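Dear H.,

Thanks for agreeing to be a second pair of eyes. The structure we're designing against is below in token form, covering all 158 positions.
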């Protein structure tokens, strides 16, 4: 039996977890499955950061070598997506995500994602550590929708 995974998002002061989210849209509120036209990010501001995790079920033996990166989608002027990995939940805000870096754009520079306890593999069903993502813009970022981005999550199953 092969393991399956879906992305989950946590929101709120005391995290509410939504499993199997339909999108990772960035917006001006802390909510999963956002419609960007309803909650746009104003140029010169940051989105609320996203606190996502991969949730695995049906793990046979072990999930390891978990990698995450932005694999497609061009940025518009002065748009950046930053990322930070951590095992503990951080309530989403629009404040610039401290300790973050620009998300890698190739598998060779991908982030190594750990399990929820900080270990290198998952041996039972459950969540990875948090992948915190934030869209950051400047005042000269064009108004309107930004380009669609693709995030890749890759792993080995033994």
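And this is the sequence the design step returned. I haven't edited it by hand at all.
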């Amino acid at each position: 039996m092969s393991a399956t995974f879906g992305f989950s998002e946590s929101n709120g002061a005391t995290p509410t977890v939504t499993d199997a989210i339909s999108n990772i849209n960035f917006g001006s509120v802390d909510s999963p499955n956002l419609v960007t036209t309803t909650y746009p990010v104003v140029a010169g501001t940051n989105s609320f950061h996203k606190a996502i995790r991969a949730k695995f079920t049906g793990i046979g033996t072990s999930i390891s070598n978990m990698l995450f990166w932005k694999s497609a989608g061009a940025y518009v002027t002065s748009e950046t997506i930053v990322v930070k990995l951590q095992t503990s939940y951080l309530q989403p805000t629009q404040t610039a995500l401290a300790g973050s870096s620009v998300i890698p754009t190739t598998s060779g520079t991908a982030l190594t994602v750990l399990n929820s306890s900080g270990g290198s593999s998952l041996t039972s069903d459950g969540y990875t550590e948090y992948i915190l993502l934030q869209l950051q813009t400047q005042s000269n970022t064009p108004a309107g929708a930004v380009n669609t981005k693709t995030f890749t999550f890759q792993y080995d199953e033994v």
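Two observations from my side: The mean pLDDT is 96. The domain at 4-157 is CATH 2.60.40 (Immunoglobulin-like).

Warmly,
E.
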